[in-house]
Amino acid sequence: MHVGEPAVHREPGVTVPAPAGRAAPSADLADRLPSLTGLRWIAALLVFGFHAGTMRIVAEPDYRAVVDALFTLGLSGVQFFFILSGFVLVWSARPGQRRRDFWRRRVVKIYPNHLVLWATALLVALWFADPISPLAAVENLLLLQAWDPRPGWFYSVNTVSWSLSCEFFFYLCLPLALPLLRRARPALLWALVVAVPLLILALWPAQALVPEASRWWFTQIFPPVRSLEFWMGAAAAELMRRGSWRGPGLAGASVIFVVTWVVAAQWIRAELWTTLLAVAYLLVITAAADADVRGRRSPWRSRPLVWLGEVSFSFYLVHVLVMTTVLRWTGDWGGGFTGWRGPAVVVGFLLVTLLLAGLLHRYVETPMMRRWARRRRPPVEAGSGRAETADAGSAPVLPRQRRGAADTERRSAYADR
After folding, report:
1. How many H helices and E strands in the chain?
2. Which residues are bridge partners to 396 per DSSP?
3. 182: number of CA atoms within 13 Å, CB side?
4. Half-sphere exposure (CA, 13 Å, Cβ side) for 114?
5. Which phi and psi (to 5°) does residue 309 adopt?
6. How far is Cα 60 from Cα 58, in angstroms, rounded to an integer?
7. What is the spatial distance between Cα 126 and Cα 223, in angstroms, rounded to a whole number?
8. Which residue ranges are recorded for the region named Disordered (predicted)?
């Protein structure tokens, strides 16, 4: 949202007036924020590129230099996901929503995919005769592994699921903290947005207080530490929901991000680039959301990008397991591929992972969300003459109220994707 422009404050069922000289935004765009769905794919691709680089798949020096230049900071894609998660969950939170309904949707969203990949990773480990700690496997199954600082334990079974362990902690906390966010003054919310990057920066000297063997876990894995990014996104969403957010438009935010990425990759130490990228990611997220709310053009809500964003969660869970399994099975683990074969193998991994992610999204994630994500209401007896009710014993729901409720459901749909 640009400084000086009229504030956008959208309640469910209320249409946002278009700024002068611009087309009115559709309710669907404002509710679902499809640009953020498209951006999810970019973040997932950054993480994929980072892992492809660290696995040394590309051995040719010239090609490897390109991979390193593009994806050296790709691990920060997880930082993007955490900020985005806080933003969309606060944006889509419904008035009067029950905590248990929120927790049920979150569990149904991430646990079926996690369970499939957990079982698959265990089968792969058995195939290669890898030693498996039963306790580590149980920790991973229950998504508790991010709380265990022992080296290797938080990366157990399906390594990338450590981030789901963090997300579960965020989901547990949000319904408890949301009333405080709703009542907080804008100045306090702005203070939170500004303080989080500074706290991320302060973590680097603070890790000296932690045993050396646990420092990576403390700064990169420990759920309360990683929740800083989540709450940064949550505070920004509450400011935007009230029409109090001030930041650059999508073009300006994109330029800031690209410049930050290039400068950080070339000249900035890790403790500083994590701070700078947190700011850059937040500016892009808020600018893309604002573009959807106001009906502005956005390159991130094209149909292909939105589909890629929808499968990005499955893609993220699958990609490391696919690459490590194939490389170990073919005997190419750690050796790399010379010449053009290196980039070709990376592209092949990308396509195979995308295919498996599409299948997982289509046949596991989507059916489970449709079946279990929303609370089922008891059917109204035919011929009873009673008006439809939202809950047993509640007041009759009038047609206009039903339309408003439908708008609210659409607004929450993004968080269920």
Report:
1. 17, 0
2. 389
3. 14
4. 24
5. -65, -35
6. 6
7. 29
8. 1-24, 375-417
Rounded CA separation 74/265 (Å): 10
Tell the residue number behind the tokens 């051995």, with chain if given: 59
Tokens standing for 63?
């090609």
Q: Name the residue with tokens 């969309």.
A: 88
Q: Tell me the CA end-to-end span of the chain in Å, nearest whole number.
A: 25
- Cα separation of 331 and 335, whole Å? 9
pTM above 0.85, yes or no: no
Phi, psi of 375 (to 5 degrees): -65, 130
| Sign of the torsion angle spanned by Cα atoms 337, 342, 347, 353 | positive
Strand partners, 109: none
Cα separation, 173 vs 336, in Å, equals 43
Partners of residue 58 on adjacent β-strands: 337
Sign of the torsion angle spanned by Cα atoms 269, 274, 278, 284: positive
**Contact predicate 242/234, CB 8 Å:** no
Nearest to 230 by CA among 183, 272, 278, 273: 278
What residues does 337 pair with on adjacent strands? Answer: 58
Q: How far is CA 114 from CA 121, 185, 188, in A?
A: 10, 38, 36
Token pair recorded at residue 199:
């706290």
Quick check: helix, strand or coil at residue 221?
A: coil
SS3 396: strand
CA 342 to chain centre: 29
Please give the average pLDDT of every successive group of 10 residues along the chain, which has 417 residues. Answer: 37 37 49 90 95 90 87 90 96 86 92 96 94 93 95 90 96 95 95 94 88 91 96 96 93 94 79 87 96 92 94 96 93 82 93 97 92 63 40 36 44 45
Q: How many residues does the chain have?
A: 417
Task: Output the CA torsion sign for 264, 90, 22, 28.
Answer: positive
Which of 277, 182, 187 has its CA nearest to residue 238? 182
User: Which is nearest to 342 in space by CA: 68, 35, 146, 6?
Assistant: 68
Read off the amino acid at residue 70.
L
